[in-house]
Amino acid sequence: MEAPTSKIARFKELVAKCGTPEAYTPWVDPKRDSHFQSAWRENRVLTVQQNAAGHGKDFGIVGFRKELNASYLLFPKPLTEFEGRKVVGIAYDAVHTPPRGPVVKSSAGKRKSRPSPSPGTKSFSVTVCVTAKVEYTETVNATSSEAAKREALKAAEPRDLDWSSAEVSRAVVRIKSP
After folding, report:
1. Which of 16, 30, 119, 163 is the most exposed place for a label (fewest CB within 10 A)?
2. Residue 4 has what pLDDT?
3. Nearest C-alpha neighbor of 3 from the set 46, 32, 38, 54
4. Quick check: 24 and 40 in contact, CB under 8 A?
5. How does the average pLDDT of the chain come out, rounded?
6. In terms of Cα–Cα distance, which of 72, 75, 66 is closest to 20?
7. Band of residue 36 on the pLDDT scale cut at 50, 70, 90
8. Can you list the alpha helix ranges (DSSP code H) found in 19-143?
9. pLDDT of the residue at 128
10. Least confident of 25-29, 99-103, 132-136
């Protein structure tokens, strides 16, 4: 991602003027996520380019940019004042990460007692394999079916998948008697 070099803004300025951001992870295509779409339309998205090699510092650009090694922050107020500026000094400790889904209370101190098996029954340790399968069609140009397979697998690597429509199967793979 190309960062503007002429103007720089500090992350703490964004937080002071636009509020505490919320971390966003695109588990589905952002075009199908109404919460993200709303933030995008209202110019409340900051794309943070994270340096995978560990050499440079992370920086942000106002707006949504689909990039490798990028994370996204959603602000409560529009970032219009900071458009076209490179945002530096990203302080991840100032980012709010809201819980998604139901909150689960820890049961660290509590151990549930297992009911003792009735006479004549045994305890078994059963290993279950859960598999999720998503199929889609990839169109590629190749000289042979083997080359087409390779090209399709290469094209499939960066693709974001929607797991909500996955075919899920469960099977017992191992049973042990302790």
Report:
1. 119
2. 53
3. 46
4. no
5. 81
6. 75
7. confident
8. 34-41
9. 86
10. 99-103
pTM tops 0.70: no
Q: How far apart are CA 51 and CA 71, in angstroms?
A: 11
Domain boundaries defined on the chain:
8-94, 125-176
| Residue pLDDT, tens place only, 56-84 | 788 898 988 888 888 889 999 999 999 88
| Secondary structure (H, E, C), 82-101 | HCCCEEECCCHHHCECCCCC
How far apart CA 143 and CA 151 sit, in angstroms, is: 10
Interatomic CA distance for residues 78 and 10, integer angstroms: 16
Distance CA(76)–CA(83), nearest Å, equals 16
CA angle, 77 then 81 then 87, to 5°: 90
C-alpha–C-alpha distance, residues 92 and 9, integer Å: 16
Give the integer Cα–Cα distance in Å for 177 and 45. Answer: 54
Q: Do β-strands 45-49 and 70-74 pair in parallel, antiparallel, or remain unpaired?
A: antiparallel
